[in-house]
Amino acid sequence: MLPILPTSMIGSYAMPGWLERLKTEFFARRISRHDLDEINDAASKAAIKDQETAGLDIVTDGEARRDNMVDYFIERFPGVQIDRTSKKFYYDFYDSEVQGKLPVASLGLVQDFKFLRMFTDRQPKFCVTGPHCLTKRIRNKFYPSEEALALDIAKVMNMELKALAKAGANYIQIDEPYYSGFPEDLPWAIRALNALVEGIEARVAVHICYGNRYGKPSWEGSYRYLFPAILDAKVQQLTLEFARRGGEDLDLFKQYPSKFEVGVGVIDVKNQDVETPDLVAQHLRRALEVLPAERIWVMPDCGCFHLSRDVAFAKLQAMVEGTRMVRRELGH
Amino acid sequence: MILKLNHLQEKTAAVASQEVVATMYSIMDEGKIDENEFSRLQVELDWIQYKKNFRDPVAAICGCVTSGEASRLLELRVDTRQVTAGTLKQDVLKALARANPNASAQDQDLMPLEEFQSLRTSIVWKFNKLYWTRLNDWEDATGTDYEKALPGGQSDGHRADAIGDSVNEFFALLKELEAKHQLPAEIFMLELGVGTGIRFGLWLDKFKALDEEHKTGYYPKLRVLLGDYSLATLEMSRPAVKNHTDLCSFLVIDGENPLKSLSFMRHKILQVHLTNVYDNLPNEEIVRKDGRLYFVHVRAFIPMTEAARLSAVYDFPLDKMRATVQRLVEGGLDHHLGDKSRAVSFWRDIWSAIKLEEKLVPFEDLPDFPYPGGLDYTKLEDILAVAPGDLRTHLSSGALDSFVNTLPLLHPRGHLQVNDIFVTDFKQYRLGYWGPGKLEGSLLSWVNGALLREVAERSGYDVHFAPFTYRKGSKNSVLYTTRRD
How far is CA B153 from CA B144, B147, B149, in A? Predict the structure, then answer.
């Protein structure tokens, strides 16, 4: 049973410098796949432990085994051609291309979810990158449109999400950071999102931010572009960034009433300065002016990938403490 | 003896090589250097482009291979531009004496102004700072504007065609953002290192005209931040932007860390521009020699003969020289040596006389070294792994710090443009001496653009260099950033 104002990360935890180095060593063929897998397992366990110690109610695996939010998925997609020489540094994106219809096959994500499940008793969350984002990263040499490719990606991933839900993943987050860069895509992007989540028996969130590549925003603007199109999304939860950008866009939820829960970003992940619990509480009070407490979830703006570990940990602690302050104010 | 040519000035190298070889044999024949020392000695011929610099015609570089070993002579470096026929032997002997701890003070002919340390913390940077904060006093005394001393007689930043292209490019960016409904309500720009302000004044004139011509309404949305570490320079720049003062804010900014003053502008600035700032920021050097990495330590000194002359001219005891120089750079000019004009005169004479002695210190604590921004042990290792073997290269610490502390200010569609003297490939370091040198009262070094490019990659930016084509013969290039995907 989750408390009111449940706390969680968006997905990724801090990527330590030593792990970056080892991942790049793997690409240079200086360490084996087996050793890298063991290293990733150890880093994931450490990330889980840090989240538990910081007091988060919901825990992810920290995504230590993902080089970035794209390659982890496209590497697993049958039918996507990858130029494996295109990476110099582990964080770089592969050059990838689709030359024919994507076959439906397992992506093997359940194994990673089971690993998370094995090492925590807390509520787990599993995150996947959405079809719009993946479509923007894969060169399309086959499908007549981006939407057609996105719908087939959604079809493959839908099967995977069903397998995840069957394995016990009852909270799944779809990451779609490219919506903000390509607002004109929103109509078909939401059709693809709905195809992805069709028939999934789990709480499904969609995370929409302004990008966090290299710890920097990729775009700026207002979430106004999401409305009213996003109201057609068949998800329970939107997780959005408000800490760095301010809470002005929260008023959009007044203007466009919906039943969405909102994961409110209260931690700026693009700044190494650690927020105080008071500041977190202020952000939450601002959200409470617009949304009932039952529909507010508490999160950083985006993944903690680019923060140093000590900063990420301190920020999560401040988030938990600030949330507790507001819970007390609410009588919980 | 290994003779190494570090430049492409064929005629000077040919003449100097013959003379160096003959001189070294003659010195060995006279027993002033033994056969073992001769056989392992490396003599490097440089051609120093700065007419005023910190080098004697011949410099001895000492060091030890590992810490704990006694320091010994590792290299002789000959400035082929300074050596003159007939004096080389005398210059070599003086350099050898300086490398010999047992030589007499008279033979060594040097008065140290500090202890050996990184160039970055050397007293010469205090002189550099003094110059920029008291530019008016220097210019009054010399009767020459700083700009007149520049190659071409004016800053490259003032070239009207370069400014026109910059304005057009920025205007196109704003049009594109507007088309995508992403034009910010306030359009922030930062000029770091304002100089005379002329560049930005001209830039704004041109931009305003273009905005009026196209009726786009961008000009009133401009918010121009003019930053410099010298309040005096900021004051001097104000008249140049007098037609646009409502849009301009003048800010004292630490050039090596603009974020300190501007953290509230994180991710908001659409254009950051600098002209010849990085080449004037504190620098330090590393050397890779026979597979080992060394840090270059320097010690500022004045030749003893010159120190004696200056103490007589300015009427203080010779043994007070070091303290008198310290008071000059730390206490300022106003109450020094009786009156300001004498102090300025002393300042210019000392600056003219200052040289740098060097020694190589083994770089043994690589992981714990205080690296400049964006660089750490693993990155440096990766970078040096693909650089040429034996190498002397700038860490460009101040430039690197400034660079990585500026990038976070950029709007997602913003860019950084730097007009400066860049070494863009590590291989170039084997073909030239890239500073430091003196320009009027300031200190200049070429900037390690190759290092900036590598560091930028890990910070999410690709760095590109283009030649500065607006002035024939200009050695400047233009660094510009694009976001890395």
Answer: 11, 6, 6
